[in-house]
Design a protein that fits this description.
Length: about 300
């Protein structure tokens, strides 16, 4: 049974009026009438007998009102216990992450954690995957988000999102107005590169296309931060390999062009990382449990 329907019925029964009940609930009268009708259909009984001249609660309605009011009291007591528990959970959760991660699932967990435990704070810092793994292994941070590292046996990893990366150039770049662009033209063009490694860090993958020595000779600018990488590409300093979700908005605005749209540079697996050996605070344990549930992990 839908508690919202019961709540609507209780307010209407106490007010002895559909219109007054609707005003108290900040709902329209048709919406309230429909809610009462749905509740009556679920129960298979008439709760209120009403017409233009009378409003009378039936015997079934009176019995249901008593039960619902008692249930509401119990529910309020449960809410009070939960709110007290939530108020007792405090602390900071530190996360190291590569920049530019696009994950609605991760965002949802953060949002719900803040709603349920407002005293819990988050400290999220940008770092490379290797820096994050090192910090987790040294128990400096409890969690990290980075590029999948299959060889790390002491670090738990679960896929958070998959990002396809493509070559992009800006409307200031000579290739922007070319009728068609070939791989040879891309090879001959200076590259804006991720320095070190961050989200979309694709030097090793690009090396498979045309050799790391050539890449290093052709890098015109670099950054370990995705936002700064995008800035450099938008400025026309060179072409860059960017996650598709990052380039899409600017492509639609006519500021970027996806080069070789039929061929992605590579797929980047973004994972959540933690150590199975680290002891977590209560807030960290709740966050981990919620992330694991969201990722469908046992």
């Amino acid at each position: 049974m839908d508690w919202n329907l019961l709540k609507t019925f209780c307010v209407v029964a106490i007010e002895k009026s559909i219109s007054k009940g609707a005003a108290r609930l900040n709902l329209s009268q048709p919406a309230v009438s429909q809610a009462i009708k749905r509740l009556e259909e679920q129960l298979g009984a008439t709760l209120i007998e009403r017409d233009s001249h009378r409003f009378e609660i039936t015997e079934v309605g009176i019995s249901l009102l008593k039960i619902a009011l008692a249930a509401r009291k119990n529910i309020q007591e449960v809410d009070a216990v939960l709110n007290e528990k939530r108020g007792n959970i405090k602390g900071a959760i530190r996360i190291l992450t590569v920049s530019g991660v696009n994950s609605p699932l991760y965002d949802k967990v953060l949002r719900e954690m803040h709603s349920d435990f407002p005293e819990v704070t988050f400290n999220i810092e940008v770092a490379t995957t290797q820096e994050t793994i090192s910090a987790i292994q040294r128990n400096v941070v409890p969690f990290g988000i980075g590029i999948s590292q299959p060889g790390e046996v002491d670090i738990k990893q679960s896929i958070l999102t998959r990002e396809e990366t493509f070559f992009y150039c800006s409307n200031y770049h000579p290739l922007f107005n070319e009728e068609s662009v070939t791989l040879d033209q891309i090879k001959a063009t200076k590259l804006v590169s991720f320095s070190g490694e961050s989200l979309g860090g694709t030097l090793s993958k690009l090396s498979e296309h045309y050799g790391s020595h050539y890449i290093h000779q052709q890098i015109s600018a670099s950054s370990a931060n995705t936002a700064e990488m995008l800035r450099l590409v938008l400025a026309g300093i060179g072409i860059g390999s960017l996650p598709e979700h990052l380039g899409r908005e600017y492509e639609e605005r006519g500021l970027l062009r996806k080069l070789l749209p039929e061929t992605s540079v590579c797929e980047v697996l973004i994972v959540m990382m933690w150590s199975p050996h680290q002891v977590h605070t209560e807030a960290e344990a709740i966050f981990l449990d919620r992330m694991r549930a969201a990722l469908n992990l046992e």
